[in-house]
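USER: If only I could read backbone structure tokens as easily as an amino acid sequence. It would mean a lot if you studied the pair and described how this chain folds. Here is the record:
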Amino acid sequence: MSNKALERLVWILIYSGLLFACLGVFLMRSDTVLGWVFVIAGLVDAATGAVLIWVRSRRKR
């Protein structure tokens, strides 16, 4: 995977994770369990993107 593709994947993961986490907060009003599932999945998604930022910083050009 090239550095450019990895960088694109990082930002897709971060933004989609934050979107899922926000959606989970809104879903908690009607279904608490489903809301927590979305929040946790979103946070894992965003954390994966953050770890990939570190991986990208350690790669050679």
Observations:
- The helical segments are 3-27, 32-58.
- The chain has a mean pLDDT of 94.
- The CA atoms of residues 4 and 28 lie 37 Å apart.
